[in-house]
Amino acid sequence: MTTKLTEAYVFERLPLEPIPAGTNLLVTGPPHGRTQDLLYELLAGGEGEGMLFVTTDDDGITVAETYEGLGHTFDPGRMCLIDASQHGQDAEDAPIRHVGSPSDLTGIGMEFSSLYESLRGSGLAQIRVGLSSISTLLVYAEDFRAVYRFLHTITSRIRTAEGLGVFSVDPDAVEDEAFATIAQTFDARLDVREDETGAEVRIRGLDDQPTGWQSL
Amino acid sequence: MRPMPDADPVSVLYVDPDDDARLETATDLEVSPLVDASVETCATIDEAVDILESTAIDCLVTEHDLPDGAGLELVEWIRDNQPDLSCILYTNATPDAIRTAAFGSVVVEYLPKEIPDSVTALARLISNVVSQRSQLAYPIPETEDERLAAIERYDVTDLEAAETVDRLSDLVASHFDVAVAFAGIVDAHEERFLACKGADWEQLDREDTICTYTLLEDDHMIVENVQSDGRFADVDVLEELDIRSYAGVPLKTPDGLPIGALCLIHDEPRSYTDSEIEDLRKFADELMEQLELRRRLRETERAVPKPDHQGAR
């Protein structure tokens, strides 16, 4: 790999060291709850960064509201959503593109390419991309190959454009072999676990990161 | 993933009904320093299919609005017939104006035509998509390029080798109580069956095969019940061929490059004992040794000129 032109991605509120540009992370944990919160924290970048989020479960407005509920500002000037949840509505101020169903991987992929290019075109060098969730894509898709091709296409674009990708999956909802194959396409993995006392995160697959479980 | 070797130019098929746009884009792509491309062009889906059937194309770039249908219809034909081909929709139509729902599984790259310096962006995208092989529906070994080069060194179509592989497959089939035993070479886009006892398969698209995954294994790959493995459950051709259980051992060159697999197929779910897997591995070693010896023999024959070739280099 050649030297990165883009700076590493920084996480103000998480027990993580900066992550190099072009990295794709798989975030595993129970759906919703702290896994989803962690996803949003990973996506919250500074003023000069773009953000693009693909949602298959919560509708776009809920995503924007939850994100703001965590104390971040959803800035339509540099953030956009692709809503494939099947129950999304148009919002007045949030830039939300709609795709009819999580099974329409072609439609999601084209909206992704289009939005990614326009964020880059507006001068944003760093772009964080989120997707929630791979488990839902697998439920709706015609077959595993289509989801693999879709993920491969998107993660490759994030890698070459030096973005940051964070994709969530609920390992309990995906068959073991399929999960292992998908996990191998990512550069690193963040596992989330939670109980009555709180939530913890563990990162594996990247150098210079804390080892073992860190409390959130 | 590593880029492809930079020996051959990327062959691009550019489909656009607008004569001027076609000529201009093709010319601009061919002179672009960002990609070493040779570009063929045409205006319709029918013409594109003719070209794809007769010429090796690495990347399709197509308009959305074509005289005989939508660009995604062409991509659908490609996913059915040449599934590994990289496809880019290059159009002024915005994603929300394109009916994608009926083509949800085809997956393409998308680039708007009306952005500043769009041909530069297109050249860069073609280069990235092809070098990263980003539209493959399956994982590939890290040594893919070396692996493909190795396959060319083993002339597995040579008649005597074919007889050996046939004989060995017969032995394997009778040793194990299974419906089918075969040896297959996994090429860039297809698996070719060298010998196949119990069925008459010749080749399958790589994305449809379980051997694609066996290449990634150090030792062996067992799928006791194909139809309950998330990766293969919905692959129609496996069910059509009655592939219900699978056991395979990669065929590796002496330097460890997997070129294919020796496999057992059964028409109902079944398991394999360690000693059965060990036997299958021994058969695979035997087969690979045969192929390797033939390769070395050919190399030696080439190095030592025969008397009637004296003087020739």
Outline the structure in words.
- Chain A is an alpha/beta fold and 216 residues long.
- Chain A contains 6 helices and 9 strands.
- Chain A has a single domain, classed as P-loop containing nucleotide triphosphate hydrolases (Rossmann fold).
- Chain A has a 9-stranded mixed beta sheet with strand order 4-3-2-5-6-1-7-8-9, sandwiched between helices.
- In chain A, helix 3 packs parallel to helix 5.
- With 313 residues, chain B is an alpha/beta fold.
- Chain B has 2 domains: 124 residues, Response regulator (Rossmann fold), CATH 3.40.50; 160 residues, 2-Layer Sandwich (Beta-Lactamase).
- Helices cover 37% and strands 22% of the residues of chain B.
- Chain B contains 9 helices and 13 strands.
- In chain B, the strands form 3 sheets. Chain B has a 6-stranded antiparallel beta sheet with strand order 10-9-8-13-12-11. A 5-stranded parallel beta sheet of chain B has the order 2-1-3-6-7, with helices on both faces. A two-stranded antiparallel ribbon of chain B has the order 4-5.
- The two termini of chain B are 38 Å apart.
- Classes of the chains: A alpha/beta (216), B alpha/beta (313).
- At the A-B interface, helix 3, helix 5 and helix 6 of A face strand 7 and helix 4 of B.
